[in-house]
Structures are given as C-alpha cells and as structure tokens.
Amino acid sequence: MRLAGLTGAILLLAAMAGSAFAQALPYHADPSAREILPGATALPAIRFLTTADFPPFNFRDSGGELIGFNVDLAKAICQEVNVACTLQAWPWAQATDALSDNQGDALIAGLEMSAANGELFDFSATYMALPGRFVTRHADVAAFSPDALAGKTVAVRRGSAHEAFMKRYLPATQLEPADTELEGLAALQAGDVDVFFGDGMRAAFWINDNLDCCGFAGGAYFRPALFGEGLSIAVLAGNDAVRHAIDWALVRLKDNGVLDELYLRWFPVGFY
Fold first, then answer.
1. What is the rounded CA–CA span in Å between residue 104 and residue 42?
2. Edge-to-edge strand ranges of the sheet holding 153-157
3. What is the pLDDT of residue 37?
4. Where along the chain do its domains lie?
5. How far is CA 99 from CA 51, 131, 199, 203, 235, in A?
6. CATH architecture of 8-129+229-266
7. What is the rounded distance in angstroms from the CA atom of residue 146 to the CA atom of residue 242?
8. pLDDT tens-place string over residues 178-210
C-alpha cells in the first residue's frame, strides 16, 4: 500500500499543527494489549526500518532529515517503552528484504497486511484505519444523506474498492468513473458530478488544498475487506517481544493523547 502524488503545498499544510477541520484519531488498538507488559531486559532497543518516499508518513525534508508521521510515531513508541531507538530508511523495493534479513526489528512504512506478507511477518495492532468518505460541495454537506442519492451522480475511481462498495451497497446510484481520484474530485469541484466517494485520506489532502470548495459529508465507512486493514507495523514472524512492546505502546500513546497529537500535527483536515 503506497500513497503518492502529494504536492509540496499539501505537504506543507499537512505539517501544520492545529486546525478547525481536524479531529482525534479513533481508537484502533486493542485495549487488552495494555496487559502485555514489555520486558526491558529482553528488549534493549527497537531498530525501525522505513522508507523516505511515503509523505506525509516518512520522507525527507529540504535539509535531508527523515521526518513524517511514522517517524514521529516510531520515536514515541521507543520513548514509551523506554528503549533505545534507531530509524533507517531503505528503498521501498528493499525494505521487506531488510526486515527478513534481520537488519531491523520493525518496518513502519505502510506494508499491506496481505496473506503473502502474513507468511513472512507478524503485524502490530492497526494504528490508522483508512475509511471511505463522501465529499460534496459545501452547500450540499448539511443535507447530504447516502439514502438520498437517487438521481445524483457520484464520482469514483474506476476499478477501485470504493467503486465496488458503491455497486454493492448503493446499486441504484449513478456512478461516474474517473481514471484517478483527483480527476473525480476535480469533476465535483467543476459541478460535473454531485458527489465524490473514495479514500478518505487522499480526499482530506485535496480538501485541504480546496477549502473554499468542498468538504466531507456523512460519516466514515470502515470496510477492511474492501478498503484494507489500515496501517500497522510489521515485525519478523515470531518476534513477539517487539510486537507486544509496540502494541502496548500504541495503547499507551492513545490513552495519553500522544497519538492524537501526532495525527493532528500531520493531518490538519481529519478524515474520520
């Protein structure tokens, strides 16, 4: 799972903390993980692997420093567990091999929780789910209802899971497939369609760049079977000490507000 095509302007806005459009991150981690206390003697450090091409999660700033939501989260996990922490960036094509070769303990880079990856790696609790969201022009946000889409045109990315969602759950809706989500959102802005439905995170970045046009309408739709399980941290299969420590830290970071703070810092337009 990779996100691409974010402009420099969007990255700058995403790095700004505090926005009237932001909201807290939902609780994704299993609260029972707090019962699995990490053993400091068995876990002296966590060697995180990531990439440098996955903004705003992990990328290099103009000075070459590795920054992003995942970078800050990795540091916060190590601080919460009270262990030493290292972060090393690898090219995406080599990152999983580096983890398999024990050149790191955990990969925080948006690796898909697929069946094939599950044979090689274990995964932490989800720290960020990726919901589907409807977007309308501002004048239509308040009155929006998914039950009142008859006669409306809805832009979706052609061949996407979000198109499949609309066909499955709202089959009477008139869909207008677009080659990319940005094209679908541009059609909404131009008035060529009435509604857009797609990945909430990508839509949030677009909204942040088009605040005078459009906004999220209705609630967030979580369908892991269609939209994916979300973002989690991969560890080598059987490395329970690191995985338990990460899960424990994720619960603590949610409870003490650090996870929400990081989310608000990097995602000023919330997508939940």
1. 16
2. 174-178, 153-157, 195-199, 132-137, 214-221
3. 59
4. 8-129+229-266, 132-226
5. 12, 28, 29, 32, 7
6. 3-Layer(aba) Sandwich (3.40)
7. 42
8. 999 999 999 999 999 999 999 999 999 999 999
